[in-house]
Amino acid sequence: MVLETFRPLALGAAEVAADLTLTAVPATIASREDGLRVVEAIELLLDADQWEAAYDLYRLRTHSGQVWKWLPAARLGQRAASAFVATPARQQACHAQLPRNELKHFLAAVGVYGVGGGDLITAREYLEAAAHHFEGPANWASRSILLRNLAECLLWLGDVEFARRAAAEAADEAVGDPMQVMKAKTYQGHMAMVAGDSGVAEGHFLAADLEHLYIKRGKHLYALGGVWWGEFLARTSRSGPSRRLTDHNREIVADLGWNEDVARCDRLLARLDMADMDLTTAEQRLTAAAATFRDGDVLLELAETLPVLAECARASGDLEAAARHVDEALNITGPRGLLRSHATALTVRARICADQVAAGSRQYVESGRDAADAAHRIATRRQMAWQWLDALDAHARLDQVEGINRGWAQQAATLRARLTPVELDPDPLATIQRQVTEKRARGKDYRQGCTPFLPEQGTTLRSRT
User: Minimal CA–CA distance to 49: which of 96, 103, 115, 5?
Assistant: First the structure.
């Protein structure tokens, strides 16, 4: 009786305390410090069974979780969503207390922010749990989004084939919604690129960009999809179109305040700067990108950025700094099973060792070979084409500094030719823009039949081991 008497007072005090805590926090969270206060208030309200108040706080102050991508703040995003569904009891209460669809949305949010924060085992568990709640014809659009997120999670884990299947299923679920079809195409393009199907990847990216131009009134792909296409263009020796696309991308996402995407753009632009030997600008961009990802606990993107920063330091001759960046990357990727990023970091380590051998320290030959061999095994077994090529190049560089020829350079040249077929359009952005202009002038829907020449079949990479 005493508990029942004082329970309403305790619950009321929780809501008052939450309101007082957030007095100085702006309506839209602008910093991680403000975000932490909001998360703590949500947790307090849920502990007091104030589900409606906690839900309203999450929905209004975090824009239903979107703010964690904008800041970024991956761990805060995972923590905020987990507060609603972290235990079976919480999941039951969430289902009973909140609108009918919110349980699956919170499960999915835990998975999405778990991916960003590097907690991939938890992320996969929650994404797969959410998938069961999104089955049925009424949920096809949301299921398409969920499958795309699952595909990304699987790709980070190195499950390339399963990632491609999930992305293909996401595209099937999206039929009928042009926006979801467009986004699914970018994911399929990215998955195909990683697997080495360059012709297929090109087709998906072109179809996505064409749809994006139609939906977004003349804007090429931007945000994550734009970065993926820009990376593919850069990898396939089309640095000019890649830079134009990425400059366009960065301008848009900077205006929107999407800091995570700004950092992704900076990382890609830095790679292009390095190819042009503008190492000073590249280092500035990479340092800023790494700081954004580190401060926001976006460990997966940090793990992708550190090897590029190491390559920049290596090109500048600072092998000690390069080794530190690689060590940090490997410390992130190894324990979390981030195989693709792990292989990338290992190839950079091999190239650092090659530079040390070239400087007269021949004791680094074995370490370099070990790193290149490990990267090669991961890449070939997991069908990760560009990591395979990087490992071959690393071995070829070690051959060069040792003054021997074990055939690695020829293998690299053969694979590079397969990954960059001559049929690829040298400037697909210009081709699409020209076709769009011509069809508009004729008053036709420019999405119909508006694609440049592509190979009839993709160049499929298959593991030899």
Answer: 96
Q: For residue 264, is pLDDT > 80?
A: yes
* Phi then psi dihedrals of residue 278, to 5 deg: -95, 75
Q: Give the residue carrying structure tokens 């580190």.
A: 294
Whole-prediction pTM? 0.91
Judged against a pLDDT cut of 70, whether residue 18 lies above it is answered with: no
Tens digits of per-residue pLDDT, 316-361? Answer: 999 999 999 999 999 999 999 999 999 999 999 999 999 999 999 9
Which residue ranges make up each domain of the chain?
1-133
Written as six digits, the tokens of 362 are: 């021949």
